[in-house]
Request: fold
Amino acid sequence: MTVEVPVRTRREKPVAARRVKKKRPNRRWIRNLMKLVLYVSVAAVVTRFAIAKVNRPLQLLKEQMHESAVLTEQLQRLKAENKVLRRRLIYIRDKRGAAQEARRLGYVKPGEVLLVLPSDLPPNDAKTDRR
Reply:
C-alpha cells in the first residue's frame, strides 16, 4: 500500500496558514536620498578644504609677484639715480666742476664780492615795494 503525500514547495502553504502581510510603503528611496545628501555634503566640505589648501599658496604667489615687480621698479629707479650721481661725482672731482659747485654753495674766490639779487621775491611783494 502506498500513501501519496502531496509535495509542496517552499512557497506553498496551506491557505489557512498563510498570513496576509501588510504592505509597507517603500522607504528605500528615502534612505537612498539621505545617503546621497550625506555624500554630497561630505564631498562639498572636502572640496572646500582642498580649494583652501590650493588657494592660499596661489594667493601668496600673487602677492610675491606683485612685490617683486615693485622692487624691480624701485631697483631700476635707484640704478638710474646712482648713474646720475656717479656722473656728478666725476664732474665735481674735476677742477672746473669743483669750482662751479663751490660757487653754487656760496663760496667766492679771494678778491671777489658776492652779490645776492632779490630774484626770489614773490610778484605781490615786488609791487608793494615800488609804491
